[in-house]
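Re: Re: C-alpha cell formats

Sure, here are both.
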Amino acid sequence: MGGSGTVNAVDSRSRVATLERYQVLDQPPRRELVALVELAARVSGVPMATINLITDVEQHQVATVGFDGAVCSYDDAMCTVVVEGGEAVATDDARSDDRFRANPFVTGPLGNVRFYASHPLTTPDGVTVGTLCVFDDEPRHLGAEDAGMLSTLAGRVMDVLELELRTRQLETALDQLQEANHQLETSNDRLAAFAGQVSHDLKNPLTALGMSLGLLEEELEDSGALDDALALLLKRAASGATRMETMIGDLLEFARIGGSPNLQPVDLAIVVADAMADLDGEVVPAMVTVKKDLPVVLGDQTQLRLVLQNLLGNAVKFVVPGVGPEIIVAASETADGWRVEVADRGRGVAEVDRERVFEPLARLDKRVPGNGIGLATCRRIVSAHGGTIGLDPRPGGGTVAWFELPGRV
C-alpha cells in the first residue's frame, strides 16, 4: 500500500468537511481543472496527470489527462503518502521506492506506474485535501524547474476551487439579500399602509380642531372678548395643529419612500426653536442653553425637528427630583459633517441599555409616560440621513444624546 494506513481523525474530518464545501466530488470534470492537469502533463513531459481529492475512505480523480478518472479506496491510493505527509513526492521508478513498490497502482492490479510525482493541494487554512499528480509507465526524472512548475500549478488548482467556493457563497449571500430586500419591501408596504390609516385618523380631528380654533377666534374678535393673551394662546394652538398636520404628512411620505429624506439646507437654530415651541409647556426657555452659532446642516427640516423634539422632551421627562434639567444644545464639526448634542442632568442611562433604548417600544422606566417609540423614530430618521445616533454619560451626571449628520452646506 502507498499510504501508512493510519489516518489522523481530526485531519480526516477537516478534509472531508472542506471537500463537501468545494462540491467537486462526483461532479463532471471542471473545464478549468482539466486545463491545469493538461498543462501539468505537458510541462512534466509525461502522458498522464490527475487531480486527486481524498476523503477519509476514497480517492477521487476529478480531472485527468491520458486516462479515464476513477475512484479507488484510500488504502490503495499512492497519494495518501503526500496527503499524510503534507509534502511533495517524486520518484523516478516506484518499483524501487519502499513507499510504493507493493502498491496495486505499481504492481499491476490497478496500474503500472513507474515515474510518479505528486504535489499537495492545501487550502488557505492549511487543510491538505488532495494532490496534483503526474506519472508515466516508464521511469524518468523530474527536474527542479519542472518540480517548481508543478508546485505553481497546484496553487492554481486551489485558486480555482477557492474561487468557485467564494462564488457560490456570494451567490448564496446575494439570494439571502434579495430575500431580505423582498421582506423589507413587504414590511415597508405594510408600514406605509399603516401610516396612511393613522394619518387619515389623525388629520381629520386636526382639521376639525383648526377650523374650530378659527371660528373661535372670529367669534371672540366679533364680541370684543379677544385680548392679547387669548389671541396668543389661540395662535399657538393653531400653529401647533398646523405643524402637527405637516409632520403627519411628512412622516407618511417618509414611510412610503422607505426613509429617503428631502435633503435641503436646514438652520438648526430655527429647528431647535421650533422644537421648543412644539414642546411649549414641557420645555421652557429657562431650562435650555442653546450654544451660539448652531450650523446650517443638510437634512430634512421636519424630520430633524422631530428628532430634536424627542431629545429635548426626554431631557425634561427623565429629570432627577430636585435637580433642574440644565439642558445644553450644541453642535461641533466632524471630519465629514456635524455632531449635534443635547445634554441633560437627568437620571442617565446605564451602558448596557444605551443601545436597547433605540429599539421600538423599549421603555426603561414605565413610571414615566411614553410609548417607547421616540428614540426608535430618531434612529430611523438619522439613519435615513446617513448618520448615526447614540447616548453618552454627561460628566457630573446626566446624559448626552447626540447624532451625527454627514455633509456640509
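Second one below.
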Amino acid sequence: MRAIALVLAPLAAACSTVTSEPAPPASVAVVFDRETMTRPIIEGVADRGTGRPVEANDPVRIASISKLIMALATLQLVDEGKVELGADVSDYLGWKVRHPDYPDVPVTLAQLLMHRSGLRDDAGYVVPLGESLETRLAEPEAWYRGAPPGDAPFEYANLGSPLVATVLEAASGERYDRLIDRTLFAPLGIEACLNWIGCSQGFADSAVVLYRSGGEVARDDAADRPPNCTIPVGDGEDCSLENYQPGTNASIFSPQGGVRIGMEDLAKIGQELLKPAEQSFFSERVLGELIFSMMAAPKNVEFFCGYGAGIQMIEVPNHGCNDALFGDGKPRIGHAGEAYGLRSGLWLDHEGGTGIAYFVTAVPDRTAPDEGGFAPEEVALVRRAQEMTAKAGK
C-alpha cells in the first residue's frame, strides 16, 4: 500500500494540471495493541502544492483530540500534587473565575474537563496574545445562564480549554507547551507541539496541509507554519513569547485543538492508556481518575454516549447514541477531532486491548450545526482499516 501511494500521488498531482481534479486527500490509520502497531492505510497527498505524499507519522493538527492530551497533563499534575480536580480554579490563578449569576459558586477543573462548568463559546474562545482571558471570562455571553457551575447541563465548550491550560500554568509555573512536553511527549519519545511552538523546522516542513472539500487551503500550508507567526496575536502585539507570563492566557497555544502530532506518535499515547497500571507510563491514579470520570459522565450527550474528563465514550449497546463509527457493538473510549476539513480520532477498545489513531482530510462541512455523528469518510476509513488489519492477521 505504501509503495502504491508513492507511485500514484505524484501521478495524481501531475494529472491535476490537465484535468483540474484535486490530488487525493491525505488519510492515515494506525491500528495498535498494547505492544505493536500496524499501518494499514497511508494514502493521498500531504501537500498538494508540492505533490508530497503523506507518510505515517507526518504531523497533523488533530483538533479536539488535543483536549484528551490536556486532560492527561492535568491528571499528571494531580499525581504530582500540584492541582486538585475539585478545587476552585481561582485559587491557582489569583483572580476570580465566576459565573456572573452565581458569584459564590466555584468553578473547578473537574467541571471544566467534563464540560459542566456552564461555560459556552458564544463569547468566542480564541484569546490572542496581548488580550485578557480574565476579561473574556467576565463576559455574560461566555456562560450558560440557567444553572450554576456543576449543575449546568453538558455543553461542549472550547472556551474551557484555555482556562484549564492557564490554571495548569499557574499551578506549575510552566508554560503550557513546555508542560505538555515534560509530562507527556518527552517521556514517551514523541515529537509533537502546539501551534508549531518548539518543534523543529524540519518537523513543520513535513506537515499535513488541511484542505476544505472544495480544494482550498484551510490550515498549515507554508504560510501558516514557521518561520511565520503561528499563534493568535492581538492588534499591535509582536509575535513573540519572550515576555509571556505563564498563568495569564494559555489560549495562545490552542489547547482546545492545536496539537500537531503524527498518527504513530498518537498511537503511543493510546498504547499506554491500554496497558495496566503496573506496565503503563501513566500511574494507577491517573488511569483510575480517567476511568472514574467516564463512570460519572453524563450519558447520551450530543452524538456520543458519555463524556468524562477530556474523554468520550461511544457505541455503548442499548444507549441509543448516534455514534456508530466501528459498527461492531463494542464500546470504545477516546476522543474525536473535527476542524478545517479534517476528521480524526483516537479510540480504544479496552476489553479487546486494541485501538486506532486516524485522520482524513478534505471532508465536507456539516450541513447543519446539530447534525452530529461521524462523517461517512471517517466511517469508511476506520472500517476499512479494521478489515485490512483483520485480514492481515489471518
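Residues 128 and 232 are 5 Å apart (CA to CA). The first strand starts at residue 27 and ends at 33.
- S.
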